[in-house]
Amino acid sequence: MDDQFLAVGDVVAATVTKSLPFGVLVEYADVSGLAKGVTAAPGDKLSLRVLEFDSTQRRFSAELA
Predict the structure, then answer these.
(1) pLDDT tens across 31-42, in order?
(2) Which residue ranges make up each domain of the chain?
(3) Exposed / middle / buried, residue 45 (Cβ in 10 Å: 0-12, 13-18, 19+)
(4) Where are the beta strands (DSSP E) in the chain?
(5) Cα separation of 17 and 27, whole Å?
(6) Which terminus of the chain is more solvent-facing, meaning fewer CB atoms within 10 Å of its CB: N or C?
(7) Which CATH class is domain 11-64?
């Protein structure tokens, strides 16, 4: 898979993997992400806008789209 398949501004449908006090951990195409300030339950699907993408560590930060 191309390391640059996620770009800032992309909107993705990610699945919540864990709820935290400050947001949720999500997964999209085997890449982990963090959405701060979002409340959701594990298994929920969220439409998120990518804010940052680290191709080296294969993780991203996002906000609700």
Answers:
(1) 999 999 999 999
(2) 11-64
(3) exposed
(4) 11-20, 23-28, 31-36, 45-54, 59-64
(5) 7
(6) N
(7) mainly beta
> How far is the CA of 31 from the CAs of 11, 56, in angstroms?
14, 11
Calpha distance 43→9 (Å, rounded):
23
pLDDT digit string (tens) for 3-26?
Answer: 568 999 999 999 999 999 999 999
CA distance linking residue 43 with residue 5, whole number of Å: 23
Q: What pTM was computed for the model? A: 0.90
Rounded-to-integer distance, Cα 62 and Cα 51, Å: 5
Predicted pLDDT at 3:
52
